[in-house]
Amino acid sequence: MGAEMEVDAAVSRRGVWILPVAGLLLGAPWIKPYFASSADAAVETASSPPFRANDLDTWARIATSDSYQLFSLTQVLGTVCLLFGLLVLYGNLAHGRSPRLALAGLILGVVGIVPVFMMLGELSQAQPILATFYQNGINICPGSLAEPGFVGRSGILSEAFCKWWWGPDAFPTALTRILLVWPFAALSLAFAIARSGVLSKWSALPFGFAYYLCIQIYPPYTLVGGFLMVVVGVWIALQLNREAADRTSSHDALPAALRT
């Protein structure tokens, strides 16, 4: 039983390295959208206005390109890695001073990721379909989507469609996700780290902030959050593995009769 627990603890410590991997997958693609594989990808950036009517041809070419699919795949994989990273992080924090707080951080963190998968579904699946319709002469952007009641029932504004990044939400949706769910999830994770006694308190706030920015799926925020997650994820992984190495060294230094 003791050997099995040691193996589980080792897997849990090493598994934390998935956090910087998640940050890299989420943040790096936003440096140059779609990896700058086409001049079309530079039409819309974080600082420029949304596509105008005469830019829909460009949007359709981007959304149906192979580079767009690769971009979407990195975001999905990054979010999956972040999800598993939270599970592994909980496995380490649960052995600390506040296991209940660690569990609360895990639950709220996972709840915060659920809307991200919905957003990525729109970006990776719906956008290419809408773009294909447009290329085949069915104009669905943005006029037909702006018809009264067409998308209002889902809490999504018509401006959210026909662009390669997540557009604006209706106020109730934005209030719930951006101002309530995500901040509470980020704060709960930060408090779980700070109160655990397993990790440095100084890593708590950077991790919560990185989590909050990573799940925005929006050009400047995900870029900054992704690379912050790389830094703080490496920091957390090094802390856990260094502490384990110190315990092993101390244990080996004991006389054989005192080892348990």
Task: Considering the chains and any ligands shown, give keywords for the structure.
disordered N terminus, 260 residues, mainly alpha, elongated, 8 helices
Please explain how this structure is put together.
The two termini are 13 Å apart. With 260 residues, the protein is an all-alpha fold. The model is unreliable at 1-5, 34-54, 145-155 and 250-254 (pLDDT under 50). It contains 8 helices and no strands. The longest helix has 37 residues, at 99-135. Helix content is 65%, strand content 0%.
Short recap of the structure:
65% of the residues lie in helices and 0% in strands.
SSE order and pairing:
Blueprint: H1 2-15, H2 18-27, H3 56-63, H4 66-93, H5 99-135, H6 171-196, H7 204-214, H8 219-253
Helix segment tally: 8
Global Rg: 22 Å
The chain-level mean pLDDT equals 76
Q: Count the E strands.
A: 0
Uncertain stretches: 1-5, 34-54, 145-155, 250-254
- The end-to-end distance, rounded to whole angstroms, is 13 Å
Backbone shape: elongated
Structural class: mainly alpha
Number of structural domains: 1
Q: Main β-sheet: number of strands, strand sense, barrel status?
A: none
Q: Helical percent range?
A: 55-70%
What is the helix/strand order? HHHHHHHH
Estimated share of beta-strand residues: under 5%
